[in-house]
């Protein structure tokens, strides 16, 4: 949020402001999203596992490379915070910042979820989105953002002085600790910035502060992704419910979320291969 200006505008202020923007990371050279590859595999896929995430809680789930998974809305309007890790190396995890830089503030079909440095490769590709009709609303809001960091107990203490333990950061920490048989202290550093599934967000037109509004998600909606590598996922059913009023409290009506994992028929992915880690030499200019 910018302060009230303390300095007068220079004579060429409007000229400076009128300079047209340039996209930081053009993605024309990235492999194009080929929907036919995924459509062929989806035509024969079968449900092999499912997980139900209780309100104000989180669960982990495994998705082998070459499988699809869906985050589903089985009951009422509910948003979720998604973490993804390389199932064999938790140091490789979802990189929301670079995903945002490449694909924009909100993601949908054809966009990829990228991993952190030095790995930087597609972890998952979004292959279907029943909320893609929403687009952008009159407030500049859209769904499935990679802006927000996840609700957490530390920010709650800063803003209100109160401790709340069922926010998404804590939910994901407990779930990872339980599933991996490690302590909360060991699990917490692996919890990272999220994909806010089903959440409707944007920036206020005047202050540019991050806003949320009631999610358009309804029973039966889903966001579908394809695992490009072996994944461990963590999903929290946010205490904000549909995020129409507040989160990090017990005030909102909350519902469960679901995860469904699908295996394509053998041989239907002959034109696909799992991406390797980034090929940068890691010399960093050293002699």
Uncertain stretches: none
CA distance, first residue to last residue: 42 Å
Mean pLDDT: 96
The helix/strand order is HHEEEEEHEEEHHHEEEEE
What's the story with the biggest beta sheet? 7 strands, antiparallel
Number of strands: 13
Fraction in beta strands: 25-35%
- The 3D shape can be described as globular
Helix content: 10-25%
Helix and strand composition category: alpha+beta
Separate helix tally? 6
Radius of gyration: 20 Å
Written overview of the protein:
By secondary structure, the chain is α+β, with helices and mostly antiparallel strands. It has a domain of 179 residues. It contains 6 helices and 13 strands. The strands form 2 sheets. Strands 2, 4, 5, 8, 9, 10 and 12 form a 7-stranded antiparallel sheet that branches. A hairpin with a 7-residue loop joins strand 6 and strand 7. The radius of gyration is 20 Å and the shape is globular. 40% of the residues are buried. The mean pLDDT is 96.
List keywords for this structure.
287 residues, alpha+beta, 7-stranded antiparallel sheet, 6-stranded antiparallel sheet, 6 helices
Please provide a brief summary of the model.
The protein is α+β, with helices and mostly antiparallel strands and 287 residues long.
């Amino acid at each position: 949020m910018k302060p009230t200006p303390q300095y007068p505008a220079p004579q060429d202020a409007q000229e400076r402001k009128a300079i047209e923007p340039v996209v930081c990371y053009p993605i024309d050279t990235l492999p194009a999203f080929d929907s036919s590859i995924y459509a062929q595999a989806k035509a024969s896929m079968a449900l092999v596992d499912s997980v139900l995430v209780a309100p104000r809680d989180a669960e982990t789930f495994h998705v082998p490379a070459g499988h699809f998974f869906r985050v589903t809305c089985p009951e009422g309007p509910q948003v979720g915070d998604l973490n993804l890790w390389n199932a064999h190396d938790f140091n490789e995890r979802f990189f929301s910042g670079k995903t945002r830089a490449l694909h924009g503030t909100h993601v949908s079909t054809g966009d990829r979820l990228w991993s952190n440095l030095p790995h930087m490769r597609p972890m998952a590709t979004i292959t279907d989105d029943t909320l893609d009709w929403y687009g952008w609303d009159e407030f500049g809001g859209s769904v499935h953002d990679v802006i927000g960091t996840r609700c957490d107990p530390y920010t709650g203490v800063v803003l209100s002085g109160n401790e709340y333990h069922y926010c998404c950061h804590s939910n994901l920490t407990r779930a990872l600790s339980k599933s991996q048989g490690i302590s909360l202290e060991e699990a917490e550093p692996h919890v990272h910035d999220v994909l806010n599934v089903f959440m409707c967000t944007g920036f206020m037109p005047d202050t540019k502060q991050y806003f949320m509004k009631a999610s358009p998600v309804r029973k039966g909606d889903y966001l579908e992704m394809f695992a490009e590598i072996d994944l461990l996922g963590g999903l929290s059913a946010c205490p904000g419910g549909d995020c129409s009023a507040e989160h990090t409290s017990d005030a909102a009506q909350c519902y469960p979320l679901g995860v469904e994992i699908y295996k394509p028929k053998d041989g239907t992915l002959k034109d696909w291969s799992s991406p390797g880690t980034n090929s940068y030499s890691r010399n960093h200019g050293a002699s």
